[in-house]
Protein backbone atom coordinates (compact mmCIF):
# COMPACT_ATOMS: atom_id res chain seq x y z
CA UNK A 1 0.00 0.00 0.00
CA UNK A 2 2.78 2.43 0.90
CA UNK A 3 4.62 1.73 -2.34
CA UNK A 4 1.61 2.82 -4.45
CA UNK A 5 1.62 6.22 -2.76
CA UNK A 6 5.34 6.62 -3.43
CA UNK A 7 4.87 5.71 -7.09
CA UNK A 8 2.07 8.26 -7.50
CA UNK A 9 4.18 10.91 -5.81
CA UNK A 10 7.03 10.17 -8.23
CA UNK A 11 4.66 10.45 -11.20
CA UNK A 12 3.36 13.80 -9.95
CA UNK A 13 6.89 15.10 -9.46
CA UNK A 14 7.93 13.91 -12.91
CA UNK A 15 4.86 15.50 -14.48
CA UNK A 16 5.64 18.84 -12.79
CA UNK A 17 9.27 18.55 -13.93
CA UNK A 18 8.25 17.92 -17.56
CA UNK A 19 5.74 20.77 -17.43
CA UNK A 20 8.42 23.17 -16.17
CA UNK A 21 10.79 22.16 -18.96
CA UNK A 22 8.08 22.64 -21.60
CA UNK A 23 7.08 26.02 -20.15
CA UNK A 24 10.68 27.24 -20.22
CA UNK A 25 11.10 25.95 -23.78
CA UNK A 26 8.07 27.85 -25.07
CA UNK A 27 9.05 30.97 -23.13
CA UNK A 28 12.47 31.00 -24.83
CA UNK A 29 10.99 30.07 -28.20
CA UNK A 30 8.68 33.11 -28.08
CA UNK A 31 11.58 35.56 -27.73
CA UNK A 32 11.79 37.50 -30.97
CA UNK A 33 13.77 40.39 -32.33
CA UNK A 34 12.44 42.22 -35.37
CA UNK A 35 9.90 39.45 -35.89
CA UNK A 36 12.46 36.64 -35.99
CA UNK A 37 12.98 33.93 -33.38
CA UNK A 38 16.07 34.97 -31.42
CA UNK A 39 17.17 31.57 -30.07
CA UNK A 40 17.50 28.44 -32.20
CA UNK A 41 15.91 25.20 -31.06
CA UNK A 42 19.36 23.66 -30.54
CA UNK A 43 20.41 26.58 -28.33
CA UNK A 44 17.20 26.36 -26.29
CA UNK A 45 17.68 22.61 -25.75
CA UNK A 46 21.29 23.17 -24.70
CA UNK A 47 20.28 25.89 -22.22
CA UNK A 48 17.52 23.75 -20.72
CA UNK A 49 19.87 20.77 -20.50
CA UNK A 50 22.30 22.90 -18.51
CA UNK A 51 19.58 24.35 -16.29
CA UNK A 52 17.93 21.00 -15.49
CA UNK A 53 21.11 18.87 -15.47
CA UNK A 54 19.97 16.62 -18.31
CA UNK A 55 21.39 15.68 -21.70
CA UNK A 56 20.03 17.71 -24.64
CA UNK A 57 18.59 14.55 -26.19
CA UNK A 58 16.67 13.90 -22.96
CA UNK A 59 15.25 17.44 -23.13
CA UNK A 60 14.25 16.80 -26.74
CA UNK A 61 12.53 13.56 -25.76
CA UNK A 62 10.61 15.35 -23.02
CA UNK A 63 9.56 18.15 -25.37
CA UNK A 64 8.28 15.81 -28.04
CA UNK A 65 6.62 13.37 -25.60
CA UNK A 66 8.94 10.48 -26.42
CA UNK A 67 9.35 9.54 -22.75
Strand composition percent: 5-15%
Distance between the termini: 26 Å
Number of strands: 2
Structural classification: mainly alpha
Uncertain runs are: none
Radius of gyration: 15 Å
Describe this entry's structure for a reader.
The protein has a two-stranded antiparallel ribbon with strand order 1-2. The chain has 67 residues and is mainly alpha-helical. It has helices spanning 2-29, 41-52, 56-63, and strands at 32-33, 36-37. It is elongated. The longest helix has 28 residues, at 2-29. It has a domain at 26-67. The protein is built from 3 helices and 2 strands; from the N terminus they run H-E-E-H-H. The mean pLDDT is 92.
List the helices and strands and how they pair.
Elements (H helix, E strand, L loop, with lengths): L1 H28 L2 E2 L2 E2 L3 H12 L3 H8 L4
Antiparallel strand pairs: 1-2
Summarize the structure.
By secondary structure, the chain is mainly α.
Structural key phrases:
single chain; about 70 residues; 2 strands; 3 helices; about 70% helix; about 5% strand; two-stranded antiparallel ribbon; mainly alpha; elongated
